[in-house]
Amino acid sequence: MADPIHQFEIHKIFSLGHIGNQEIAFTNSSAYMFGAVALVSVLMIGGSAGRALIPSRFQSVAELSYEFVSGTVRSSIGEEGMKFFPFVFSLFMFILTANLIGIIPYTFTVTSHLIVAVALALMVFLTVFLYGLYKNGLSFFKLFVPHGIPIYILPLVTVIEVISFLSRPVSHSVRLFANMLAGHITLKVFAGFVTSLSALGAIGIFGAVLPLAMTTALTALELLVAFLQAYVFTILTCIYLNDALHPGH
Amino acid sequence: MAVGLRLSSELVAGVVVGTILGWGFDRLLSTSPWGLIVLMLLGFVAGVINVMRSAGVGRTP
């Protein structure tokens, strides 16, 4: 049977040099990341080049994605959150494109690796933390001290709130990574049943219809999950940025 | 599956962060095993609070 985790292997394409004993290589993962960025750039630059009053199909995709993300940012952070719009929009488009590229057979899914998701989530976390400190000064730490709590359990609640804050990048990244990984493994396992069943002869080919239908259905589900996870990542980024802008309420 | 993964990742994240903090606390101050015990339990509490917040149950601060 086909190996379901073979698709997540990283291959070196060429080497960029060494830091210490560690080789820094340009891998297939890097290539797909560049591919995703290039695709987003082509879509947005090409889509906004025409500036027609009646948009072409290409332009309407670009406008639709702008409207979608700006609506999300405005509704969860408010008007002053629009200064984070470029950041949130880049995150959304990058994750969405990387997820969608991953559904095409024989491609590599960048976001199914924990390290990529962690890097993105840590970027959000550090932005929230550093910007919150810069904007609010020490009153940013009011985020950890909910008001209306009796003084004798306040230390306990503060420690719990700090742990809850620190666990944000963990759950933020694990959610994206686990969804993409689990979905792709399930898809590959069911697709593997089709080939191994049809090797059994005539009865096997009839039997293989069931996993084939399942694979088709799962591909549609994966399309939904790819979009949904990009959206969930974006909306959580907005919620966390909202804490940086307005702590303590 | 998406909802289940979301909630379970919240819970696991709380416990993991609490445990790592407790372990680091013990390493630094050599109070083993008390830091690990206390902070792991607090991490569990934080995980449950995370789950409740992300499920929309209870009051958000």
Structural class of chain A, please?
A: mainly alpha
**pLDDT below 50 for ≥5 consecutive residues: which ranges of chain A?**
none
Measured by residues with Cβ under 8 Å of the partner chain's Cβ, the largest interface is: A-B, 22 and 22 residues
Shape of chain A: globular
Strand order of the largest sheet of chain A: 1-2
Question: Please, could you describe this protein's structure?
Answer:
The complex is a heterodimer of chains A (249) and B (61). With 249 residues, chain A is mostly helical. Chain A has one domain (6-245). Chain A contains 8 helices and 2 strands, in the order ββαααααααα. Chain A has helices at residues 28-49, 57-76, 85-103, 114-136, 154-166, 168-198, 202-207, 209-245, and strands at 12-19, 22-27. Chain A has a two-stranded antiparallel sheet with strand order 1-2. In chain A, helix 3 (85-103) packs antiparallel against helix 8 and helix 6 runs antiparallel to helix 8. Chain A is globular, with a radius of gyration of 22 Å. The termini of chain A are far apart. The mean pLDDT of chain A is 88. With 61 residues, chain B is mainly alpha-helical. Helix content of chain B is 82%, strand content 0%. Chain B contains 2 helices and no strands. Chain B has helices at 2-29, 34-55. In chain B, helix 1 runs antiparallel to helix 2. The longest helix of chain B is centred in the N-terminal third of the chain and has 28 residues, at 2-29. Chain B starts with a helix and ends in a 6-residue tail after the last helix. Chains A and B meet through helix 5, helix 6 and helix 8 of A and helix 1 and helix 2 of B.
